[in-house]
């Protein structure tokens, strides 16, 4: 559910939504979500001074509740 929500949010931000993919991994520290975007869109997802990335992490953290979630941004 968290991966789908994050993918939906990121697809709304970028210019190349077909290049967005979110991979979820579960580990001993919680869930890790890896977002891959087109290299031209990486700046849009990070935002000025990281504000957009921080907002995405805040929303996903709120959806996760007590579960520990980490969001990583990677260019495809």
UniProtKB/TrEMBL annotation:
Protein name per its UniProtKB record: RNA-binding protein KhpA
Keywords: Cytoplasm, RNA-binding
NCBIfam families assigned to the protein according to its UniProt record, in alphabetical order: PRK02821.1
Family from the record: Belongs to the KhpA RNA-binding protein family.
Classification lineage: Bacteria, Bacillati, Actinomycetota, Actinomycetes, Micrococcales
Keyword 4Fe-4S tagged: no
PANTHER family per the UniProt record, alphabetical: RNA-BINDING PROTEIN KHPA (PTHR34654:SF1), UPF0109 PROTEIN SCO5592 (PTHR34654)
Cited Pfam families: KH_KhpA-B
Function description: A probable RNA-binding protein.
Presence of keyword RNA-binding: yes
Compartments where found: Cytoplasm
């Amino acid at each position: 559910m968290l991966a789908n929500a994050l993918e939906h949010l990121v697809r709304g931000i970028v210019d190349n939504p077909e290049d967005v993919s979110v991979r979820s991994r579960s580990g001993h520290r919680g869930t890790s979500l890896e977002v891959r975007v087109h290299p031209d869109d990486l700046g849009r997802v990070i935002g000025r001074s990281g504000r957009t990335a921080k907002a995405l992490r805040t929303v996903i953290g709120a959806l996760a509740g007590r579960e520990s979630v980490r969001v990583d941004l990677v260019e495809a």
